[in-house]
Design a protein that fits this description.
Blueprint: H1 3-6, H2 10-39, E1 42-43, E2 53-57, E3 69-73, E4 79-85, E5 88-91, H3 94-109, H4 115-136, H5 143-148, H6 169-172, E6 186-191, E7 195-199, H7 202-205, E8 214-219, H8 221-226, H9 228-237, E9 240-245, E10 251-252, E11 258-261, E12 266-270, E13 275-276, E14 279-280, H10 285-289, H11 291-306, E15 317-319, E16 321-327, E17 336-339, E18 351-354, H12 355-360, H13 366-369, H14 373-395, E19 397-398, E20 406-410, E21 416-422, E22 428-429, H15 435-461, H16 468-476, H17 481-486, E23 491-495, H18 497-502, E24 512-516
Parallel strand pairs: 15-21
Antiparallel strand pairs: 1-2, 2-3, 3-4, 4-5, 6-8, 6-9, 7-16, 10-11, 11-12, 12-17, 13-14, 16-17, 18-20, 19-22, 20-21, 23-24
């Protein structure tokens, strides 16, 4: 093929660029609008207008013509924002929306924040770069990895879910799951007297051969680039040596810093000195030091009945964070965590899918193609809800059962048959946290972040389907006072990611606002 065939004509290239820009604006605007409308805006009474738009009042003193009114099209993924000013509605592009949100929050909180608007813009630009790269990339083999790499919009209620630290795309794009990235890991030799490890890390030793006096330590290439100055002295004095790269490639999953290789059924989690959503994604020392206690508590809970509580064909599974290895001189920067693989956990013929991918959508998404959403949804609830409630009620374990930490195994017909939960870092244990606080966190992760989003996506794809009666029935089956109270509670806790980031609160310092409880319908 001639080179001219590979390069679109200028007009075609411009049209393609315009399409990418428009789609990037829409992907970035939807979660930002979700945050603004949930946390700050006041919905005006009455049904949406004939054009399907809903109108909201924003806080602050606007002109008498109503400049503080905002309207959007759609509910689950709001789009086409317009502000009312000078007697007419005016469409807002993403840049203007960011300016509006910043102005509203400055007045609402009395605080200024330059960092978050820059992250909002970065998040939009990241989506544009991902879309461009994705169009040229080869999707991963199989629906599991496609589901992990599908999250172009990402967290549906975060103001900047795709921000990557503000750096140029050349720095992060080779490692972006949304761009269908795959890459080999860097292999390091870590001098034995500098090794710190806990738990089962034998999988790391099978990745290559370390020279005498050293242990193998795989590293994420992006993290090595980010931590170059910190690690330079160790390379200079021989505590670290470069041993090349793995002879296989890994696929980054939705969490970006966690990678998977299906050929070896190997899952590894790395430190990454980049803010993704609310946190710098390092493997922090305090989390690593309590990892074994937390993970072992969840393993015991599932072995004692947390998994068997599911009514589906297969017991739920906890994907254990088996152990970690790192260097004493770079404890967080070089940490790598070994997580259980998937193959031994799955029923015969079942395929795991990321729950967040079911919401976002991907090629082969069974929630979009099922002909019987009622049966599909009941099967989904039967495998997801009981294990999380039983782990809390019987074992004091608060799973962080949100969309990105839950896998759903489906059979050949696409029907859910098993839930797999992961990420000990986010798990809380009673009585380390008070029971009421633990329950609030579980309700947010499981019901608001997870079930609510899957239910909304399912209802959107299957008009006329009401998902909430099945949720009420599922919760009503459990002899747990908090679950019974949830059925009559006027509100559910919604995390305020926009206000949390604007006010500079710690990412782990969850703050909630009351949301109308759809279980009361």
């Amino acid at each position: 093929m001639d080179r001219v065939d590979l390069i679109p004509p200028p007009a075609e290239a411009a049209a393609s660029a315009d399409g990418v820009a428009e789609r990037a604006d829409a992907c970035a605007a939807a979660p930002l609008l979700n945050c603004l409308l949930r946390e700050v805006a006041e919905p005006l009474p009455g049904p949406p207008g004939g054009d399907g738009r809903s109108v909201y009042r924003l806080p602050g003193d606007g002109p008498s013509d109503g400049a503080r009114l905002l309207r959007v099209r759609g509910t689950r993924r709001p789009a086409e924002p317009e502000v009312y000013t000078a007697g007419a509605w005016h469409r807002l592009g993403h840049a203007a929306l960011v300016d509006l949100v910043a102005e509203v929050l400055r007045g609402h909180t009395g605080l200024a924040n330059r960092e978050l608007p820059a992250e909002m813009t970065d998040s939009r630009d990241v989506v544009a770069a991902m879309l461009t790269a994705r169009a040229r990339a080869t999707p991963p083999p199989g629906p599991y990895l496609r589901s992990e790499q599908s999250l172009l919009t990402g967290h549906p209620h975060h103001p900047a879910p795709k921000a990557r630290g503000g750096g140029p795309p050349a720095g992060w794009l080779p490692y972006a799951p949304e761009a269908h990235a795959r890459f080999p890991l860097v292999l390091l030799g870590l001098r034995e007297d500098a090794v710190v490890e806990e738990g089962d890390t034998c999988a790391l030793d099978a990745l290559g051969t370390a020279p005498p006096g050293y242990r193998l330590l795989p590293a994420h290439p992006w993290q090595l680039e980010l931590a170059g100055r910190e690690l330079a002295p160790a390379f200079a004095d021989g505590r670290l040596v470069r041993l090349g790269a793995t002879d296989f490639e890994v696929w980054p999953t939705a969490a970006v810093r966690t990678v998977y290789t299906p050929e070896r059924d190997l899952c590894l989690k790395f430190s990454l000195d980049v803010r993704i959503t609310n946190d710098i994604r390092r493997l922090w020392r305090h989390d690593l030091l309590k990892l074994r206690r937390t993970d072992e508590a969840v393993v015991r809970a599932f072995a004692a009945g947390g998994g068997r509580a599911a009514r589906g064909p297969a017991p739920a599974v906890w994907l254990s964070d088996r152990g970690y290895r790192t260097a004493d001189f770079a404890f967080e920067a070089l940490a790598v965590l070994v997580r259980d693989g998937l193959e031994d956990a799955l029923p015969s013929g079942a395929t795991p899918l990321l729950a967040a991918g079911l919401v976002e959508g991907f090629d082969g998404n069974p929630s979009a193609t099922t002909a019987d959403p009622v049966t599909w949804w009941e099967a989904y609830l039967a495998v997801v809800v009981p294990p999380a409630l039983t782990a809390f009620a019987d074992h004091g374990v608060v799973l962080e059962a949100h969309l990105q930490n839950t896998l759903i195994a489906v059979d050949a017909d696409g029907t859910p048959v098993q839930a797999l939960f992961r990420d000990a870092e986010g798990v809380k244990l009673l009585p380390d946290v008070e029971r009421a606080a633990g329950w609030e966190r579980l309700v947010y992760c499981l019901v608001v972040n997870h079930l609510w989003e899957v239910a909304a996506a399912l209802a959107e794809r299957h008009p006329g389907f009401d998902p909430w009666p099945a949720v009420r029935r599922e919760l009503g089956r459990h002899d747990l006072p908090e679950a019974a109270a949830l059925l009559t509670a006027p509100t559910l806790p919604g995390k305020t990611n926009l206000l949390l980031r604007w006010t500079g609160a710690d990412g782990a310092d969850a703050r909630y606002l009351p949301l109308p409880n759809p279980l009361l319908r």
